[in-house]
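We emphasize that the prediction below concerns an isolated chain of 165 residues; any contacts that depend on oligomerization or on bound cofactors are therefore not represented. The input was used exactly as deposited, without trimming of termini.
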Amino acid sequence: MKEIIETGTEELHARLDKEAEEAGYHLNPDARHAKDLVSGMLVNEKRYGYWACPCRLATGDKEDDLDIICPCDYRDQDVEEYGACYCGLYVSESVIEGEKSVAPIPERRKPPEERKGSEQMPTTIFSLPLPVWRCRVCGYLCARDGPPGVCPICKVKAERFERFM
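Result of the prediction step, given as a token string:
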């Protein structure tokens, strides 16, 4: 099984690197670190059936772990604020260019007792807990504290976003 994981790691790392670059993201330039994380994702896929972040404790309940399936719900904000996502698989452009060092990243994921039942959808759009941001170029919408650094659809920068609601 170790050989299968190692072969799969090389292939998945290459695929994720290509997809990340096409989407305006970057994998960690420390290839050994990035491949170790990819290997952990493959182990979790065999274990649970999905790519749970190898740096977090997955429950095995996909519904409960949706927020930590790679790329996790916390990636964009972590990369913008700290230069990397929690596990360090994705890094910012400024880290790639050597302009910024990766800072310690706090865990954003709520503990299990706080997650239970907290995912209920609001009854109206006006009760969203976060502002909605709209890409003026392609119309992509996201609900978060601020706009993403790069639109995942059309790759424009944060300044092309407007507050939607």
